[in-house]
Design brief:
Distance between the termini: 38 Å
Number of strands: 12
Shape: globular
CATH topology of the domain at 30-36 and 102-195: Alpha-Beta Plaits
Strand content: 15-25%
Order of helices and strands: EHEEHHEHEEHEHEHHHHHEHEEHE
CATH superfamily of the domain at 30-36 and 102-195: Reverse transcriptase/Diguanylate cyclase domain
Strand order of the largest sheet: 5-6-1-7-8
CATH architecture of the domain at 30-36 and 102-195: 2-Layer Sandwich
Length: 380
């Protein structure tokens, strides 16, 4: 993880009380991406008359509920899950808009495709937020903060929506960090700053601690993460049951949960933009090797095989082309992927102009629903 500090309720596994407090976290780089006021922002994007005005997505009738509120509305205290009559009372100028979930799902799909260009390890939490494990990202970017910055920039370029991000070494901290610089910002919590961050956090700000639990904690003298950390595991379990262990460990910035993708990708790819344009076949064949390595490594991690190999080429004049070849069966080895990718590259020559970007992907991946698909070994 980068040490660039400020770029501006799932239950945790139960750990035994005799587990040492110095348990080493896996060296993960986790990014939590959260689209800012998602539903309301989509409505303001698509209707210029709503921009800069307090907007609530939801029903305006007496029994209606606010599904989402724009930042202009939030300044009046309007928030999601608030009864519409209460929202109207807090903000008389509030504009109610009916939700368009088909549009929100479509935009969410666009954003997820951006995520998958960086890592196959994406765990969506809802239409507007997801965890990404970028420890070994497909772009080979060394800093998680840079990955988050690029993803946020891509989201803006492709959807004209802003997103905030939190970066840390576990999911709990990444989630907490994403709230720090909203909207349209990011924040990183490092190993060195995690304890101080958690200890200073008001108990009501903890992800997974709702208003009722926060009130109960306040009644027994727990107001901050430091207060929570001072309580023993047995004390917390006695008062909060199974959730007690959860509270005990998050107060110590401990969260061992991995990012869990909810589906197998239909494709996985990698690409690289060269610092200096490439011209010869041998240069580009060499440049293809690390990309093939990345794609194959992620196929191995996912236990997936694919049948369609696609080569992506962007020229110096920014013209972009793709060339694909679909095999009769699955590519079963890195050598098979290389053989097909290099063959696609060879067919492009002579080019006539230099190349600034090269990419390779493997698609038509096998899934759990296709166990009997034929396989073809392409060992060379």
């Amino acid at each position: 993880m980068s040490d660039h500090q400020n770029d501006q309720s799932n239950t945790l596994p139960t750990l035994t009380c005799d587990e040492p407090l110095g348990v080493r976290e896996p060296q993960r780089r986790i990014v939590h991406v959260d689209l800012d006021a998602f539903y309301a922002s989509v409505e303001q994007r698509d209707n210029p008359d709503l921009r800069g005005k307090p907007v609530a997505v939801g029903g305006s009738r007496e029994r209606g509920v606010v599904a989402a509120a724009s930042y202009e509305a939030r300044r009046f205290g309007v928030h999601s899950a608030m009864p519409s009559v209460t929202a109207r009372r807090k903000c008389p100028e509030l504009i109610f808009v009916k939700p368009r979930f088909d549009v929100y799902r479509e935009v969410s799909g666009q954003v997820r495709e951006i995520f998958y260009e960086y890592t196959p390890l994406v765990e969506p939490l809802s239409l507007d937020e997801a965890y990404l494990d970028v420890s070994e990202n497909l772009m080979d970017i060394p800093y998680a903060t840079q990955v988050a910055r690029e993803i946020r920039a891509r989201i803006w370029q492709e959807t004209h929506l802003t997103a905030s991000a939190g970066i840390s070494f576990n999911k709990f901290l990444a989630k907490m960090a994403s709230d720090q610089n909203k909207p349209n910002g990011q924040f990183v919590i490092t190993q060195g700053t995690a304890q101080a961050f958690v200890e200073g956090l008001p108990i009501g700000k903890f992800h997974g601690i709702g208003p009722a639990t926060a009130r109960k904690m306040n009644e027994i003298g727990i107001f901050t993460g430091l207060d929570l950390k001072a309580r023993s595991l047995s004390f917390l379990q006695e008062r909060f049951g199974k959730a007690g262990a959860h509270y005990y460990w998050i107060s110590r910035a401990v969260d061992h949960r991995p990012v869990q993708p909810d589906r197998i990708r239909k494709s996985v790819g990698a690409e690289n933009t060269f610092e200096k344009d490439r011209e010869s076949f041998e240069e580009m064949k060499a440049a293809l090797q690390p990309l093939i390595d990345k794609v194959w490594r992620h196929c191995e991690q996912m236990g997936a095989r694919g049948r369609t190999v696609t080569l992506k080429v962007k020229f110096s004049d920014f013209q972009q082309i793709t060339r694909s070849h679909t095999l009769l069966g699955y590519v079963e080895s890195r050598a098979g992927l290389e053989h097909t990718g290099v063959d696609l590259l060879r067919q492009l020559f002579p080019l006539g102009k230099s190349v600034r970007l090269l990419g390779v992907s493997l698609s038509a991946l096998n899934t759990d629903e296709e166990p009997e698909s034929p396989q073809l070994s392409l060992e060379l």
